[in-house]
Amino acid sequence: MILLFYATRKMIERYIDYIQYTKWYSFNTVTKYRKWLNKFECFLLERWKTTNRPEEIELTDALEFISHLMKSGLQPSSCNSNLDGVKGFLNYLREILQMDVLDPYRIKYVKEPQKSIWYYSEEQKRLIINTVDNWIWKKGITQLRNKLLTYMLLHTGLRCHEIAKIKVEEIWESLQVVGKGWKLRTVYLRPELLDMIGEYLDKRDNDSEYLFPSHNIDGGHIREWSIRNIYNKLTKKLWFHIHAHKFRHTFATDLLHLPWSNIYDVSKLMGHSRITTTQIYLGTNQESLKRLQFWLAF
Questions:
Q1: Do the beta carbons of residue 85 and residue 36 sit within 8 Å?
Q2: pLDDT tens digits, one per residue of 33-46
Q3: What CATH fold (topology level) applies to the domain 6-106?
Q4: Which pTM value belongs to this model?
Q5: Using the 8-state DSSP alphabet, how is residue 257 labeled?
Q6: Which of 255, 167, 183 is nearest to 175 (CA)?
Q7: For residue 2, what pLDDT band results from cuts at 50, 70 and 90?
Q8: Class of the 122-286 domain?
Q9: Smallest Cα–Cα separation from 221: which of 161, 141, 148?
Q10: What DSSP designation does 113 have?
Q11: Domain residues of the chain, as ranges?
Q12: In DSSP terms, which residues pair with 178 in a beta bridge?
């Protein structure tokens, strides 16, 4: 059975090498794709008896794989993640290797319930800013660092791993940021942020090349878990939980509800590959909806 399945296994390994060394997917993304395709491979190994060629994968195989995932208790979003791996693999075989395999566009995603995006309200943002400005957890340079970190997360939409890797020499009126999938985008820094960065660097006694250096003996930049710990401590001073990534959701939601913004510009600032990803932030700002409704005459 293993010998019969060798051709498909070999193609999967070639695809994994392709996304890792040609597409430059991150280590975590490659690991996820490997896991998804291994799951699909195991399913096919149980289903197939005499075939060993990826060209013989049929739509019924994909549909039964979806049913298999749903019956195993996976949520629709997790099922669709597995399908991303399968569809990417089939697309690689068709477009790159020019093989006559199942068209991945024939495989439909599982319908998901509408995704809710959590963001900070205007009141919560004021409380966060006031608390950070008067933070007494640790005084001095650490307090200034935490304040700068919070303002940058709130006003740039950067992800934690992106902000952690910023180097001092890269800071100007804008930053060139490498995001998910090695996509390059430009992030602009407000004059107030630049002033805050200058004050922080003047008082910092660390000559690290990174804006937010690690305090570990090995040096380098601050780690994502360290950023999460900072906001776990901040949470104890407030009545709601602080998630660092929630600043990014807030940034996108606020931008989309500005009168002069458009979804294409916001998508570019956020580093999204597809407009549909940006669309999930539309209609989530309940305060804007309330103001809109109250425009009606009473």
A1: yes
A2: 999 999 998 888 88
A3: DNA polymerase; domain 1 (1.10.150)
A4: 0.66
A5: T
A6: 167
A7: very low
A8: mainly alpha
A9: 161
A10: P
A11: 6-106, 122-286
A12: 184
